[in-house]
Specification:
Among the domains are: 76 residues, 2-Layer Sandwich (Dna Ligase, domain 1), CATH 3.30.1490; 165 residues, Nucleotidyltransferase, domain 5 (2-Layer Sandwich). It is 38% helix and 29% strand. The protein is built from twelve helices and 20 strands. Strand 14 and strand 15 form a beta hairpin. Helix 1 packs across helix 3, helix 6 crosses helix 7 and helix 8 runs parallel beside helix 9.
Length: 429
């Protein structure tokens, strides 16, 4: 999309509890300037998967309309995040013989295709093929092999797959809302783009996106993705516990969780009280906040313990030397960092979206991490498209002759002799 000559990018996070749309302008210095944001309650999804298309379409339209009005533009295309228990990640290896003595872009394409040739069920599709490292003639740790000399090229990749039906339902819902889907991006990778630092990616870090229906995990080391996983527990599980334990409506339980929730009972003062709405027209009741903490702590402990067990089973727990970064709406619950450090045994922090200008006050929230990260993915794709376009235009231009037709005064002695000999032969013939 364009607005007065500027390239606009839209990230659309279709989550279990909320739908968030963020509009940004891609500036000439390759920075993103956020100019519009809209979110609304999500209806039609369960654990990251569409269960009611009509409700999902209405939620998408509502969020996109708000973001478009704020940005002053008509949104037509979006980058969409995907999550859910159906997401699976596997590591693969590819190897080819280099055509010639120099690695060319075509060789990189061929080796990635070779790494992709793994057995994938017909009901699944590849979302990402993420290079971890290239190997040229047994030289490991290469980030970009193009131009290097060698005869054998290898690559280690991480392949992310999703259920075909789930991906198609996200695309179909967006299309029915009048939107073209530019690309589908794994939400944990998008969030990582928004909240992780270059140093964390290099040293080793685990990103844990505590969403509404699921908790998405991504492990990075040496600036490459090493493992992805999804835990089928999230903030909505805790909301349901609060609604059941306090006998309050689900919407009220969500507000109570966000405002008063605490993942560690020791952080709550004994004299703190909260007002809890009742059901069936009964008057609200006053309860000690410690009662709420008694509900929150066991569930948050279960979620984070599940995440820690996943990290250990993946073999990547030893890789996260810089610690764990928690993001997503559920990460804002008081005491989440302290509980995380107790369970993970490594430094833990809350991840906020960075590397963007404009409406940062509205977007600077862990619950917007995925949508802002989708903007960064979109910016990378737009820039790659622009570079490719320039390259094609350069190749299409006719080559300029280095030596034009020479006049006799411009010729050297040899060329003058050659010209005279040619004229002699013409005269003889």
């Amino acid at each position: 999309m364009d607005k007065a000559g500027a390239e606009l990018i839209v990230g659309l996070d279709i989550g279990t509890t909320k739908v968030c749309a963020v509009v940004a302008e891609l500036l000439q210095d390759r920075q993103l300037k956020i100019i519009g944001i809209g979110d609304c309650e999500s209806r039609g999804l369960r654990k990251g998967m569409v269960v009611n298309i009509e409700d999902t379409v209405r939620s998408i339209r509502q969020a996109v309309d708000v973001a478009g009005q704020m940005a002053g533009c008509n949104i037509k295309s979006v980058f969409v995040g995907i999550a859910g228990g159906h997401i699976m990640g596997i590591n693969s290896h590819g190897v080819i013989a280099v055509q010639g003595n120099e690695v060319m872009p075509s060789d990189v394409t061929r080796v990635l295709e070779a790494a992709r040739t793994v057995a994938i069920p017909s009901d699944r599709e590849v979302i990402h093929i993420l290079p971890q490292e290239y190997i040229v003639d047994n030289q490991r740790g290469i980030v970009d092999p193009i131009g290097m000399a060698g005869v054998r090229l290898e690559v280690n990749v991480h392949i992310v797959t999703a259920a075909v039906s789930s991906a198609q339902n996200l695309v179909r819902s967006s299309n029915r809302a009048g939107l073209h889907v530019e690309d589908i991006v794994l939400e944990s990778l998008a969030s990582a783009k928004a909240v992780l630092t270059d140093e964390e990616r290099e040293i080793g870090v685990a990103l844990v996106d505590l969403g509404g229906g699921t908790s998405d995990i991504a492990i990075f080391e040496n600036n490459a993705i090493k493992h992805t996983a999804v835990v089928p527990l999230g903030g909505s599980t805790l909301t349901n516990d609060i609604a059941f334990g306090l006998r309050t409506p689900t919407k009220a339980a969500e507000r109570i969780k966000v405002k008063y929730g605490c993942a560690l009972r020791d952080l709550v003062q004994e004299d703190e009280t909260i007002e809890v709405p009742s059901v069936g027209g009964r008057p609200p009741q006053k309860l000690s906040r410690q009662v709420l903490a008694d509900i929150c702590e066991p569930r948050m402990e279960e979620i984070l313990t599940f995440v820690d067990r996943t990290l250990v089973n993946s073999g990547g727990k030893d890789r996260i030397r810089s610690g764990v970064v928690l993001t997503g709406g559920a990460a804002l619950i008081e005491g989440c960092v302290e509980l995380g450090e107790q369970i993970f045994g490594v430094p833990t922090r809350i991840g906020y979206p960075t590397n963007a200008k404009g409406l940062t006050d509205a977007a600077n929230n862990p619950k917007s991490s995925t949508a802002v990260g989708l903007l960064h993915f979109g910016a990378d794709k737009v820039l790659a498209r622009q570079i490719s376009r320039v390259s094609l235009e350069t190749e299409a231009k006719p080559e300029t002759k280095i030596v034009s037709e020479l006049t006799p005064s411009d010729e050297g002695p040899f060329k003058r002799l050659l010209r005279k000999m040619r004229s002699w032969f013409q005269d003889i013939s």
